[in-house]
Amino acid sequence: MSLIKPNLPNQLSMYPVSVPEPVSMTPITVLEAGFRHSRMWLGVFGVVALAAIVITALTTKQYQSEMNIIVENSRGNMVITPERTSGVSTVSGVTEEQVNSEMEILRSKEIAEAAVDPEWYAKLHDTVEQKAHDKEVDKFRKNLGIELIRKSNVIHVVYAAKSPEEAQKMLQRLLTAFLAKQREIELPSGASKFFAEQSSKYKEQLEAAQLELAQFQQKSGLVSLPDREIQLEKQVSDLEADRRLVDLQLTDATHRLSTNQTMVTQIPHRQSTTERSVPYQVAVEQLNTLLAQLKNKREELLTKYVPTDRLVVENDRQIANTENTLAKLSASNSQEKSTDINPVWQQAQAAIAVSRTDVSALKAKQKDLADQIARSKSDLNSVEGMTVQYSTLKHRVNELENNYQLYTQKRDESMMAADMDKQKLLNVAVAESPTLSFVPVKPKPLLSIALGLFTAAFVACCVVFLAEMSRDTVANARELESLSRYRVLASVPKLEGLKLDAHELAALQAYPTGNGRAEAAGSSVAQW
């Protein structure tokens, strides 16, 4: 409809003007707008609803397979280190970082590529195949959903495909690739083989070094050079201690010998035991007998010779001597004394003999100890001369033995870890295997149609609102009062084909109503 504003200056000045209130947005105005644009609203609603129904009907059905993976710390990661100690990390509670790491591994492109084509990395590909494969990987990652169940260590994985079997198969491939990656992370591939090769190599080197060391020991006659060196050092030390003791003993024995020799010169060899005085009776008797014989001989000589003869004179002299001796013996007594060996002197002699024996023995022992010390020192010098070669061989044997034991231990640990991986003893466990569901998850007809109808109603309302806000016509008396600031006194329907001239329109406006007076001053007529 069009807004008509007649030129009535005289009438406008006759009546007071009232300012109308602005039109507000009320349910009535909304319903009026809806009724005014009902055809438009129904058209837009029908088009959008029909499009939603068509799209729902033509949408390809999507089937979904899902699985749950629980993150655990049932075993520590095997860390390859050169140290002898085990590189297993300490098992503790599951952290948020660990769960996020497992989710990122599931989202990784490498896992997606292995799920799309498990044999992809085993073959060579050209550019076209690579592009097609990348598209499939992108499609797979778009259809894959990974989320963490709240307040748990469970990762929920879903995959949507055109068929239930395909969804389950692709999710099973993803699980297989993920577990293989877990085993690779737990223990890098080739670790067992590497440790076994190194263990075998060091075993051969160790046997060769041990053989060389044994030949050296056999040639030198030594079983253990350090033990032999320690033994010789101890032997030299003991011999020198014995020699110092013998020197002290020899000095003491020599001193005792000198003391005993000095003492024995001052001690008499014998001592008196008994002493008595007796006359010389036997000697007197013998001299008397001799004197008688000499006198008898003189008588016989006088018969033959003269007194002055030499024989007679000699015989007289013997008789005189015998008489003198007999007179002396008769005048004195003989003294008898008994003596015996002095026991003190005898003991001193025995002590001297013992001291001499001790000195001789100690001197011999001293000489023997000196010889033994010289031989031991010579052997020690010889052993010390072989120390460098022996130490080099022994150090090499010990080093190779340590390396062999280390690689053997690492080999056994890696084999145990590999066996644990084969038994699926990982830090993740499959709480729910990929499911097979024949109920499509997309589309859901009722929900899709309901959302389509709601969208259609919303779009239709938006279109009506835009149309209502952009119109430049007056729809009712309230809008007319708001625009003209005058009250509308009457409304007449728009008559199709009826044309009024200016006089008829003026007469219609001047028609009296109300209290009998014309209140049409400043009014406007809305024509429908």
Strand order of the largest sheet: 2-3-1-6
Please tally the helical runs, counting DSSP H or I stretches of 4 or more residues: 16
- The end-to-end span amounts to 6 Å
How is the CATH topology of the domain at 63-195 and 408-432 named?
A: Bacterial polysaccharide co-polymerase-like
Strand content: 5-15%
Total strands: 8
Helix residue percentage: 55-70%
What's the CATH architecture of the domain at 63-195 and 408-432?
2-Layer Sandwich
Largest beta sheet, briefly? 4 strands, antiparallel
Element order, helices and strands? HHHEHHHEEHHHEHHEHHEHHEHE
Task: Report the top-level CATH class of the domain at 63-195 and 408-432.
Answer: Alpha Beta
Shape: rod-shaped
Low-pLDDT parts are 1-23, 511-528
- Report Rg: 74 Å
**Quaternary arrangement of the chains shown?**
single chain
Q: Please, what is the average pLDDT?
A: 76
Outline the structure in words.
The chain has helices at about 10, 25-35, 40-60, 95-105, 110-115, 125-145, 165-185, 190-220, 225-265, 280-300, 310-330, 345-385, 385-420, 445-470, 475-485, 500-510; strands at about 65-70, 145-150, 155-160, 270-280, 335-340, 430, 490, 525. Helices cover about 65% and strands about 10% of the residues. Among the domains are: about 1-20 and about 485-528, no CATH class; about 65-195 and about 410-430, Bacterial polysaccharide co-polymerase-like. The strands form 3 sheets. A 4-stranded antiparallel beta sheet has the order 2-3-1-6. The chain is rod-shaped and about 255 Å long. The chain has 16 helices and 8 strands. The protein has about 525 residues and is α+β, with helices and mostly antiparallel strands. A hairpin with a 5-residue loop joins strand 2 (about 145-150) and strand 3 (about 155-160). Helix 3 (about 40-60) runs antiparallel to helix 14 (about 445-470), helix 5 (about 110-115) packs across helix 7 (about 165-185) and helix 10 (about 280-300) runs antiparallel to helix 11.
